[in-house]
Amino acid sequence: MTISSLTDTFTLNNGVKIPVIGFGTWQTPDGDVAYQSVLDALKAGYRHIDTAAAYGNEASVGRAIKDSGIPREELFVTSKLWNDSHSFEAAKIALDKSLQLLGLDYLDLYLIHWPNPLINRRNWDKANAETWRYMEDANTDGKIRAIGISNFQIEHVEALLKTATIAPMVNQLFVNPSDLEKDIVAFNNEHNILTEAYSPLGTGSLLEVPQINDIATKYNKSAAQVLVRWSLQHGFLPLPKSTHAERIEQNADVFDFALTDEEMTALDQLEGVAGTHQDASQADF
Ligand SMILES: NC(=O)c1ccc[n+]([C@@H]2O[C@H](COP(=O)([O-])OP(=O)(O)OC[C@H]3O[C@@H](n4cnc5c(N)ncnc54)[C@H](OP(=O)(O)O)[C@@H]3O)[C@@H](O)[C@H]2O)c1
């Protein structure tokens, strides 16, 4: 598939179309910064916004969406269910709260943020199964157009699939040239689950890597643009974040060049360059 603009889409396994680059909002403070950066992103042409209950900025994200004047059906809004809400009832309350803060009637995508938070690390499989049952209901009712997971490794997805009647459409993971996550990405592909690449710039840590900058110089592009391109060319959906208008625009200006196969391979060989990412499923929260 040739991707040529921010409004091009991937098609999820339930037929829902999702714009190929999402705008990230983690660590973007609630209030003016979140409001302005989302507004800047929408002005730059992004139509896909990635937030989460845990980011604490859903109200400002929602205000920017409303003030942008862009018709709701042209936007794709994702939020995520936090670790304190892994049950049927708690998930219902959490989704309603996110919708209320965002000022929306429905979400385009809702994700279980982490598979096995400390609070239920001993019974995470049962907790996810129950949570998922609510997400399936909300999906069927049209409150969420697509449902998915985040930070799930193979064992977590396999456990979920034992009781799921609707398979996840998305698995959002830490994926960039420093951390290829080959096994879970292959598993996602086998199961027709789209891999969303979070921290595509390594939360900024990859931007000074010489090999990435050498490729960027060749195309008169920035390291950030090379990294977004790398994600797209792997078939991932990147979620770059910035709070600066010129960077927000820059990160979306990636449709006028393409990395060669040799450059993709060279970038793949940077695994570990930004340090080893903590095994997400063992996270200390
Ligand atoms: N599901 C999960 O558990 C999870 C976890 C982490 C992230 N995510 C999602 O993925 C999104 C992206 O990941 P991320 O926030 O870790 O970071 P990222 O997008 O990999 O990198 C963002 C960092 O790079 C800087 N930056 C962005 N564009 C730049 C450019 N063109 N030139 C120079 N610096 C630039 C930003 O600074 P400024 O903002 O100051 O411009 C920020 O410090 C998040 O915002 C969130 O939506 C999800």
TrEMBL record:
Keywords: NADP, Oxidoreductase. CDD domains: AKR_AKR1-5-like. Substrate binds at H113. GO terms for molecular function: oxidoreductase activity, acting on the CH-OH group of donors, NAD or NADP as acceptor. It comes from Weissella hellenica. The active site is at Y55 (proton donor). This is Aldo/keto reductase. Residues 21-270 form the NADP-dependent oxidoreductase domain. Belongs to the aldo/keto reductase family. The record marks K80 as: Lowers pKa of active site Tyr. It comes from the Bacteria. Pfam families: Aldo_ket_red. Gene3D superfamilies: NADP-dependent oxidoreductase domain.
